[in-house]
Amino acid sequence: MHYTGTVWRPPYEASSLLIEATAGCTHHKCKFCTLYDDLPFKFRLSPLEDIEEDLKEAQRHCKLWGRKISRTFLVGANPFVLKASRLLEIASLIQKYFPTNQSIGCFARITDITIKSDEELAALREAGYDSITIGIETGDNDALTFMNKGYQAEDIIVQCRRFDHAGIRYNFFYLTGISGRGRGEKGQSIQQTSATSSIRR
Question: How much is the pTM?
Answer without folding.
Answer: 0.90
